[in-house]
Design brief:
The protein has about 220 residues and is α+β, with helices and mostly antiparallel strands. About 30% of the residues lie in helices and about 20% in strands. It is built from 9 helices and 10 strands. The strands form 2 sheets. A 7-stranded antiparallel beta sheet has the order 6-5-7-8-9-1-10. Strands 3-2-4 form a 3-stranded antiparallel beta sheet. Helix 5 (about 75-85) crosses helix 6. The protein is globular and about 50 Å long.
Length: about 220
């Protein structure tokens, strides 16, 4: 079983070359909850609320980065900067991004794999005949496997903390979540990673030989 891959600031492809050929950052969708959801949910003024994975899966709607880019008049890279640095570094981009927000609209899922992506990820992991999904969570001290045909998304969501990697038992694909990231890193032995991304209708930034973890702040 391949252990969780600890990545550093050097280019992604140079770090994964022993196991995989291609990599891409899958962009976690923004989350639109039903009108009035936050008001009904809030128990006290100014309470910070973020919907649970179960709530997102059952009544939330994904909103693409491309849609946000068009509405905010930011490039996708600027959306990435605003999302990752929304606490302090680029208040100008953050403020521009928030023109798209309403009281029931939320940033993408941080730290862990977005529940909007999980079903497609399981489908990709099983696409080359794998029977099991393998997982590795180093901070939790856990690793194991799940039979693909028995996986339930709610259980998968509970299983996926930050610093987490999902693989198929043939080790053709891997999906990695990291702290402070609004993306999932997709790794594959397949040369045609762009074709997989198009087929799954994912939003993604495909890594070239210079792409690092800070892809959103790199010059094009």
């Amino acid at each position: 079983m391949l252990e969780y891959i600890q990545l550093d600031v050097s280019p992604i492809l140079s770090q994964i070359s022993n196991h995989f050929k291609s990599a891409a950052f899958l962009l976690h969708p923004f989350v639109q909850m039903p009108n009035g959801w936050q008001k009904r949910k809030r128990e006290r003024p100014f309470q910070h609320i973020y919907p649970s994975d179960e709530e997102i899966l059952n009544i939330g709607k994904p909103v693409s980065w491309n849609q946000i880019s068009q509405q905010s008049d930011l490039t996708l890279q600027e959306v990435g900067i605003a999302v990752h640095d929304h606490r302090d570094k680029r208040p100008d981009l953050t403020n521009q991004l928030r023109t798209c927000f309403n009281s029931d609209f939320y940033y993408p899922r941080e730290d862990k794999i977005s529940v909007f992506l999980l079903n497609d990820i399981v489908n990709v992991l099983g696409s080359k005949g794998a029977d099991f999904v393998l997982y590795s969570a180093p901070l939790e001290g856990e690793k194991g496997r799940l039979k693909i045909e028995e996986i339930k998304l709610e259980e998968m969501s509970d299983l996926t903390p930050a610093e987490f990697m999902l693989m198929d038992d043939k080790l053709e694909f891997a999906f990695i979540s990291e702290y402070d990231a609004y993306t999932t890193l997709f790794l594959t032995k397949d040369d045609n990673i762009a074709g997989i991304i198009r087929r799954m209708n994912w939003e993604a930034t495909i890594c070239d030989n210079k792409t690092t973890l800070n892809w959103f702040s790199q010059k094009s």
